[in-house]
Here is the input.
Amino acid sequence: MNYYSLHHKSPKTTFKNAVIEGLAKDRGIYFPEEITPLSKDFIDNIENYTHQEIAFEVIQQFVGDEIPAEKLKEIIAETVSFDFPVVKVDENIATLELFHGPTMAFKDVGAKFMAKCLEYFNRDNNKEVTVLVATSGDTGGAVANGFLGAKGVNVVILYPSGKVSDIQEKQLTTLGKNITALEVDGVFDDCQEMVKTAFLDEEITKTLTSANSINVARWLPQMFYFFFAYKELKKLNKELIFSVPSGNFGNICAGVMAQKLGLPVKHFVASTNVNDTVPNYLKEGTYNPKPSKATISNAMDVGNPSNFIRIRELFNNDFNLLKKHFSSYSFSDAETRETMKEIYSNSGYVADPHGTVGYLGLKKHGIQKHEFGIFLETAHPVKFLDVVESTLPVKVAIPPQIKKVINNKKVALKASSYEDLKAFLMQE
Ligand SMILES: *Cc1c(COP(=O)(O)O)cnc(C)c1O
Here is the structure.
């Protein structure tokens, strides 16, 4: 399968090169040249397939013959290795819990899939690849875990100092081995900008790639979730509306891809915190990226979402078509806390701030009688312990995955500017 750059100034490239490069030379992100809908027979009989079989059907065309089918199945088995329960929260609303993986964030799936692809592509060369990743919270931990011990791959994680939760920080600063954490004096957008600058810096001779959702191997496996939810909810015989708590818009963009593959989805809601670049765009028609603002749903504190350009492409850059199938709403921290309380008192469900923003999006959009709403629960509430325990009358039990890292010692290098990152990458 070939991929083209959405800036249209770099040549087309293979899946393998798109994974290794991350971003095209023209700074555009990659997009698959063809999207072939899956057979109706598969969609109609999805309940007869296991999660791993579904994942294979969904991703295979995007990998093509660059990874043999048997190997791809192995990679999927390592990636889709935990549960994705659908939990009913209201009469006509359920949540799809994506947080049962090793770091309790939905990004575990994409991170592991990408790590395994990169390891495969690197299998018989001695050149090391350096994965550079900027994180607003959960990416760092998921990438650190997914890539830990990957042969021929070094990982450098940039995170904004003081702007990720304690548990998130532990998850990305305590693993050691091939993982280095850089604590950046700035916000997420500064981290992302430093990563982008490094990619263009010709004085850096290391092979760099990115493990943000701009990387196709991180982004595409997220399509699986929407198929898994459909498998569970098909029997309701209702039209499905997905609400995705969104920051960089990779996850929801994967949902729109799933729809392109033939998944029956009525409507998408991209729910954001006060970082409202996309909701404003849909309202006013002008795309105005802004510096990100810190919120209690910090993994979504993104002022210029990298994947939104892919969503526009999926709707043929047709603003009216986009608006017909896709809505986006923004919510404040106060609304989020209020709603966490409401969900808890109505159903006993403890939602984290990100999932709660997703729930708010469904409520704002409205769910009709013949419809059913699903919001993605993108992180376990334990990852936002301070917010959850200061909002709800609960004590969140610490799951084993978190216990493992919580008492480990943080090791991070400090970076206050691009020059610090560069110096680190230039040393041998
Ligand atoms: C990354 C993240 C998001 C946002 O996902 P995008 O694909 O960047 O839109 C939402 N919630 C949590 C918990 C996350 O870690």
Remarks:
- The mean pLDDT is 94.
- The first helix runs from residue 15 to 21.
- The longest strand covers residues 153-160.
- The radius of gyration is 20 Å.
